[in-house]
Amino acid sequence: MSLINILREPDSNGLRVPDQVEDTLLVKTEGETENENERVTFVEYRFPNSDVIVHRSCHLTLKKMPIDMSGIAQPLI
Amino acid sequence: MHNKRNLRLRSFLAGGIRWANSQAMCTQFKIDILNGLHAFGTSVVRGATTKDSFKLALYLASASRGAGDTVYNTTGELAASGNYTAGGNAVTNATVPAATGTTAFWTPSASVSWANLTSSGSFDAALLYNDTSASKLAVAVFTFGAQNVTAGTFTLTMPTNDASTGLLRIA
Q: The whole model's pTM is what?
């Protein structure tokens, strides 16, 4: 059991209040996406029977950035 | 017979070992650029010989950061709320620029992380800029798949620091 930082679901005014909740009270979803440039792992928490994400953490690993600076010298004409 | 053999040997040496100039940007120059040793235009008086500090700032997917950026820009940056501070976080720079083959490269030496962050929207870009320079000179914009973070941690782990994947590469 551990405490998870969350943002409470929006109240009647649409405000979301920070809080901490035991992880056993939440539904946890983990996922992973990957392409040639990056790898992303994430974890999301929702209250049971709710679609609202109250916590989402993300770890993004850059594998290769598709930019560089070409240093090819131009010919002197 | 002996002269013919010498003639063939001289012909082989003339054709086999070919001395020639090759057009190239010097690899050391590429490293020196990363170390700030050249100024082809008006430069600045540097206060010290120590390395500069760099930061990464995060930008909303709706922003328009890119090659045209000259300095750190607050337009489109994540709002300074939800534990995000305007200007972003410092990058750890413990590895000096290097080169393999003819490609010079540099990569921050540690991940950059935002704890207990709630992003003000979906973000998909980070601007690397020079936090030591008075005007916060821009270095590069890196884009990635759009992310949202809610009361969580966003960690940006750097690519392997080498000539093919380093964050900054001069090939």
A: 0.86
